[in-house]
Amino acid sequence: MTAAATEAEKQGSVFGAVHLGYLVIESRKMQQWHRFGADAIGLHVDELDADTLRFRLDENECRFLIRRGPAEDLMAIGWGVDDHETFDRIIKRVSDRGVPIVEGSAEDAALRGVERLWRFPGPKGIVQELFTTARTTAQPLRMLTSGYVTGDSGMGHVAITSRNPASIHRYYGTVFDSRLSDYIDENVGGLTLKIRFLRVNERHHSIAVAGLHHLPVDPIRTRAQHVNIQVADLDDMLAAYQRVRDLGFRIAWTVGQHTNDRELSFYCVTPSGFELEVGWNPVVVTPELEAAWQPTTYQGISIWGHDTVHMTDNLAQVREALRYLRRPEETVPALSTPIGTTT
């Protein structure tokens, strides 16, 4: 357990003992995902069968699970928990609020490369899955990238859009004792979006939430706007950027540097439509920084770069958004509302 997790444990908090472990994606585009993951991004790919791919970043058996299905979306986030005491504390928090928790089958656990898992509802319909022990393998990595940053930071982050971002903020505060790292105010088409960045360990953020208060519809079809992985070497990020372009996959945002966590990164479009951010060298909120950390509001997402390319025209974006006009945003009120209040 990390120093931050040990200190949080003394205060009855689970902060620092939770880490983003894996992502579950449903797609019909298995061949495109194989080519995207292995040849463009440079991940290790295991093809378990015609309907199942797994991507590895490190010794863990699974970091991305791609299963055949119609959704073309992120379906679940897997959270690793350091110990059984912390796990029990989280489960109690969820169950005490009347939220159903279901144990995954042995097959589910094996596909995700964990010994056992439990799942419960999450914001935007993204299922949250908990596990304590990830299976590792000594099989060598076959990938074009020299290495990724995982460990105590988890494997990266997930960014989502929401018409009620405060509820998601409270959700992760209730479940994982998340802490607010900072905000970014970004102007999009004359509207200011406030983006919240939430950390559950030393990684600057494991969840980012862009508020859509002033938009009549959510323009993002998928549950996730983007997911992030972090390379260990800058050259690997730049090489992946070039491979993505050379192989004809869409770049959404060119290489640039963020204002808040100072990460250098680029964004590309996955075969399922949400974006993948490949980043390098973000700020880490170490225990020394944690003690004095104060959330700050930054103006704009990027210091430089992150220019948009290959974007759909505005009319096409409106048409796409209107398809989901009547689709309500899925929430979990019992975990998003302070005890003693009603929604």
Q: Characteristics of this structure?
A:
9 helices; 31% strand; eight-stranded mixed beta sheet; single chain
Structure description:
It is a single chain. The protein is α+β, with helices and mostly antiparallel strands and 343 residues long. 24% of the residues lie in helices and 31% in strands. It contains nine helices and 18 strands. The chain has a ten-stranded mixed beta sheet with strand order 17-10-11-12-9-13-16-15-14-18, covered by helices on one side. Strands 2-3-4-1-5-8-7-6 form an eight-stranded mixed beta sheet. β11 and β12 form a beta hairpin. It is globular and about 50 Å long. The two termini are 36 Å apart. Mean pLDDT is 91; it is low at 312-319 and 339-343.
Number of helices: 9
The coarse silhouette is: globular
The helix/strand class is alpha+beta
Could you list the spans in which at least 5 consecutive residues all have pLDDT below 50? 312-319, 339-343
Radius of gyration: 19 Å
Distance N to C terminus: 36 Å
Fraction of residues in helix: 10-25%
Largest sheet, if any? 10 strands, mixed
Strand arrangement, major sheet: 17-10-11-12-9-13-16-15-14-18
On the 0-100 scale, what is the average pLDDT?
91
Instruction: List the secondary-structure elements in sequence, H or E.
Output: HEHEEEEHEHEEEHEEEEHEEEHEEHH
Number of strands: 18
Residue fraction in strands: 25-35%
